[in-house]
Amino acid sequence: MADSCASLLPLAWDGSPLQSMIHPAGPAAADIARLWWVMFGAFTSVFVLVIILLAFAVWRKPDTATVAQANMPPWGKTGFIVAGGIILPLLIVTPLYIYSLTTSARLHTPKDALTIRVIGHMWWWEVRYQDDSIVTANEIHIPAGVPVRLELTSADVIHSFWVPRLNGKRDMVPGLKTAFWIQADEPGIYRGQCGEYCGTQHANMAFEVIALTADDFTAWQRARTQAVQTQSDEQHRGAAVFRKAGCPQCHAVRDAEAVRTVATSNAGPDLTHLASRRMIGGAVLPNSRGNLAGWVADAQGIKPGVKMPRTYLAAEELHDLVSYLETLK
Ligand code: CUA
Q1: Distance from the alpha carbon of residue 157 to the mean position of ligand 1, in angstroms
Q2: Which residue's C-alpha comes closest to atom 1 of ligand 1?
């Protein structure tokens, strides 16, 4: 069953389904999937029972008045309605209600663990680690096998944080901080998607949770806190283009280049380690040199409505700029 469903869904790099809540990869999502299957089973049984009774009522021969009287259950007409219309539904629905409430409480109770702040923007995700030691975008690196506490909010409109294989949805409301948690049992890549309509590019507001082994996660953290060095002439020229074209007005880059002194805005994604990300543009394009150049030149053509404007650069300037961006590992 699970395998035949999986083949209908887009697959991740490791062949696992990308965004399927019935293919959980962590304890919270497993709780949701279990609840879903129990509900599915219970209500399918009720549906089948109702159809059988309906078919029986339609096809049986009508009784004569005396036979009908004789067939009446001992508790009478009213008793039949009370038993079948009130008591039976209560017996089915009450346990499911309690089960769903207790599951829900588990899903929303954050564990005391590594905290990552995630801020929703139209239409990308700002990601900040404890003490703002690491700031990134559209990719959340977490250690596998342990709970990760999330603090969610929004910079503009209501978004909804949703990684279907790791937990349910949680709204991100401007001016409000909500605590949430996720856990991935195994290292891997789990795609997330904004779960609340938030404007034109809502559907292209995606991200990835990348779960790493404890050692890999420590190494990743260490690499993030090291300053980037610009090297070749081409890259230095690119850094100059970055400043001249106005990129620092929206994008922060914390590097050893002079860019650092001006590039501190968080109106757009932090680009400090851009080159090490798998995707760009809110997980709409793989991070390649060609896509990066296309995005810089005409983000509006790729994702109409984003705040990133078209840039009008000479071919050589664009070339140098992309070379510079590629150094931001
Ligand atoms: Cu953000 Cu939909």
Answers
A1: 8
A2: 159
Could you give the 3-state DSSP secondary structure of residue 128? strand
Which of 315, 323, 311, 160 has the alpha carbon at shortest distance from 235?
323
pLDDT digits (tens, 9 = 90+) for 26-77: 999 999 999 999 999 999 999 999 999 899 989 887 777 777 777 776 777 7
Q: Which of helix, strand or coil describes residue 285?
A: strand
Q: Which residues contact 106 (CB under 8 A, 6 or more apart)?
A: 28, 31
Cα–Cα distance for residue pair 167/103, rounded to 1 Å: 11
CA distance 188 to 13: 9
Model confidence at 2, pLDDT cuts 50, 70, 90, reads very low
Q: Report pTM.
A: 0.84
DSSP assignment of 137-204, as one string?
A: ESEEEEETTS-EEEEEEESSS-EEEE-TTT--EEEE-BT--EEEEE--SSSEEEEEE--S--STTGGG
Atom of ligand 1 nearest to the CA of 197: 2
Nearest atom within ligand 1 for CA of residue 157: 1
Ligand 1 centroid, distance to 169 Cα (angstroms): 12
Residue ranges around ligand 1 (CB below 6 Å) = 120, 123, 159, 194, 196-198, 202, 205
Question: Distance from the CA of 10 to the center of ligand 1, in angstroms?
Answer: 21
Beta bridge partners, 116, equal 129, 150
Index of the ligand 1 atom closest to the CA of residue 122: 1
